[in-house]
Design a protein that fits this description.
This protein is α+β, with helices and mostly antiparallel strands. The protein is built from 12 helices and 8 strands.
Length: 301
């Protein structure tokens, strides 16, 4: 790999390491990651310009380095690789404050359509339809697995309905601010992953906050009192608060578990705790923003 890096990037590689599917190395000046990706050249182009937009706003992430042919994607042994110059190589875990720092980096009016996914309900509906069809036609479920599947599909359908109803009161989607966000955010995410532009998309400001809180629950690193203190620092509009809650409600984690064939053994045993987590945040949002009610949640307050 050293020879490839020198040939395509004219960099003298020192201390090359292969960790979790990525090559880490440095030269005399900088540290780098060489990472393979399945993204198309068009998506990589959008990510590249989003990273440049962030730099113009003094919000830095790892810098995408083009090869000697001025291309983002370098084909090595049939795979597309992207070289990143590291901005922050800390293994320290991010905190909610790190997410909140970028809440004012609004990117409305920029054409990043290939990495913009809002409104999400089309994707959510497709995901639910896929797994309903998959499990009905290809795989038999135990009784407990079937109960879990139907529970989370029901939660997902509630999230979809809530988001659709919320957006009916918006005259145009363009009214909603879009900011640089992440495909996934984890409470144990390191800065080196948080600043990776290959994880960036353009989405509403509530996405990363909701995903971080959701993951903190399932990773057992959450504190309801601390969550309320964090949400006190954020000023949503009523519409944004409802979009936030729909994102929080949709069980993306469950479908990730299924996709990775890694459903935790204690998942069923934490359903009651999970509902209390959802109800607590719902109650907070009802008090602060008077968000539209969800009747079955009202019954659990």
């Amino acid at each position: 790999m050293k020879n490839y890096i020198y040939y395509y990037y004219q960099l003298d590689v020192e201390n090359l390491r292969y960790v979790h599917g990525k090559y880490f190395f440095h030269d005399l000046k900088n540290q780098y990651i060489l990472e393979s990706t399945y993204y198309s050249k068009e998506i990589l182009q959008d990510i590249y310009y989003l990273q440049k937009f962030l730099q113009s706003k003094q919000f830095y992430c790892h810098e995408i380095i083009k090869n000697t042919a001025s291309e983002i994607c370098t084909i090595i042994d049939g795979k597309c690789y992207v070289l990143l110059k590291i901005e922050n190589n800390s293994d320290k875990q991010i905190e909610m404050e790190d997410i909140l720092l970028k809440q004012n980096v609004v990117a409305n009016g920029n054409d990043f359509s290939r990495i913009t996914y809002f409104p999400w309900f089309h994707l959510w509906e497709s995901k639910i339809d896929y797994y309903e069809q998959y499990f009905s036609s290809r795989r038999e479920l135990s009784f407990d697995e079937e109960v879990l599947l139907q529970f989370f599909i029901g939660i997902g359908e509630n999230a979809i309905s809530y988001l659709k109803d919320t957006l009916k009161s918006v005259s145009s989607i363009s009214e909603i601010n879009l900011i640089p966000s992440h495909r996934r955010v984890y409470c144990n995410m390191s800065f080196i992953d948080f600043y990776n532009p290959l994880n960036l998309i353009l989405d509403v400001q509530v996405r990363d906050i909701a995903e971080y809180l959701k993951n903190s629950f399932w990773m057992n690193c959450y504190n309801l009192q601390q969550i309320e203190i964090t949400l006190d620092k954020v000023n949503f509009s009523k519409i944004e608060a409802q979009i936030f809650f729909s994102r929080l409600l949709f069980p993306s984690f469950y479908f990730d578990y299924i996709e990775n064939n890694d459903v935790p053994k204690d998942l069923e045993g934490r359903i009651t705790e999970y509902l209390l987590f959802i109800v607590d945040i719902y109650t907070y949002l009802r008090k602060k923003y008077a968000i539209n009610e969800i009747k079955w949640l009202n019954k659990k307050i």
